[in-house]
Amino acid sequence: MSHTLTVRVPDELAAWLEAAAKSMGLSQGEIVREQLEKARHGKAHTPPFMSLAGVVSLDEKLSTRKGFSKK
Fold first, then answer.
1. Distance CA 35, CA 52 (A)
2. What per-residue confidence (pLDDT) applies to 49?
3. Which long-range contacts (CB under 8 A, 24 or more apart) does 6-13 make?
4. Which residues form the domain of 19?
5. Is residue 41 one of the residues assigned to a domain?
6. Position 11 pLDDT exceeds 80
7. Is-contact 38 44, C-beta < 8 A?
8. Is residue 32 classed as helix, strand or coil in its secondary structure?
């Protein structure tokens, strides 16, 4: 069974939601449902920088300053 929920949001948030829906090719409702599911499962409070964890790998010899590079 499905329920309808009416939520009032500030104009700025409504404009963001509309733009995000257009850019993602989703409905505004789909975005809201997705975010509610994330909140329900405790994923909403993950710090944004954690999405990069394990993604970046750098060369150990990246620094060229004397005394900082590993040989």
1. 19
2. 72
3. 7/32
4. 11-47
5. yes
6. yes
7. yes
8. helix
How many C-beta neighbours within 10 Å does residue 69 have?
A: 12
Residue 21 maps to a domain: yes
Cα–Cα distance between 66 and 71 in angstroms, integer? 11
**Percent composition of the chain: helix, strand, coil (DSSP 3-state, to 5):** 45, 0, 55
> Is pLDDT of 12 > 80?
yes
Residues contacting 31, CB < 8 A, separation 6+: 17, 20, 21, 24
- Write the CB contacts of 62 (distance below 8 Å, at least 6 apart in sequence): 69
The domain total for the chain is 1
Q: Which of 18, 42, 45 is nearest to 32 (CA)?
A: 18
Residue 20 included in any domain: yes
For residue 18, the SS3 value is helix
Residue pointed to by tokens 């009032």: 8
